[in-house]
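ugh ok fine here u go
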Amino acid sequence: MKSDRLLSILLLLQTRGRVPARELADRLEVSVRTVYRDIEALSASGVPVYAERGRHGGIELLAGFRTDVTGLTADESRALFILAAQGAHAALGLDAALGSALRKVMAALPAPYRPAAEVTSRRILVDATRWRSGPRQAVDLQVLQDAVFSDRRLRLRYRHSESREARTYTVDPYGLVAKAGTWYLVADRRAAPRLFRADRICSARPLDEPVRRRPGVELADVWEVLRRQVEDMPQGIEVTVRVRRERLDMFQRMAAAHLTALPDDDGVSDWVTAKLAFPVLRAVRQLLAFSDQVELLDPPEARAELLAGARSVTALYQAGPGTGD
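structure:
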């Protein structure tokens, strides 16, 4: 709506000072011509706004002009009170600051919107952590935060999942990302994007060197590249299994990360066929967790690997407690 756009322009100018017309157009997803028409409309309504052309020009409010309008609609005010990740603020040491900020926002809201915002905070809860994720190593994000906000390079001791020994890296951090309850440091190493799980960082030390980020690249840009790399990573082997119907729901929850398609369920048969993908052949041994509720059908080498795993488990328990290699 035009009224919302005019208010957005007003608040942007009040917050940022002089802003180029092209930047306003990009942020509002309209043409530059539309921005200038909106500026004329604001000026006609009594807002002291003017435009300066030239290399360093832009659109600006007259010095000293302020408005106390919040600009919040009813839906926007409710949205502020829905916390997308309950643990994120605590991990960053910002729980108290968040509570204080929300109280200030509540006080600034137009009176008709306050009851709806208050009810929203009590009726909507979003928990980004997974069910039964198990105990996790405590993560101290303070050093990582300090480096991110002070624009300094970091020296890390980092342990990869496939290695027992930590390795040393010098990185240029872009920021921190919380995904499904897990924190990641997004950084460049030798000008290439890298992802570091915070709970695998053994130690971190800010250096007395300024960060060397690639020009024009932001955290969201690097995260999108890394996210796609993970999601598009080719799986090493695809297998076909059949699952007992009474265990299908449990199977879909536990094997969700490996499912390549929804199980082929006719609603009648005692067994349901499904396809999964694993990064390496040995990983099919994870299916032993389902005991006789899941049978691996194909390919033959995967069946052989699973059989070898089952024999190893059998041999371990037949040897007696504490006698295995």
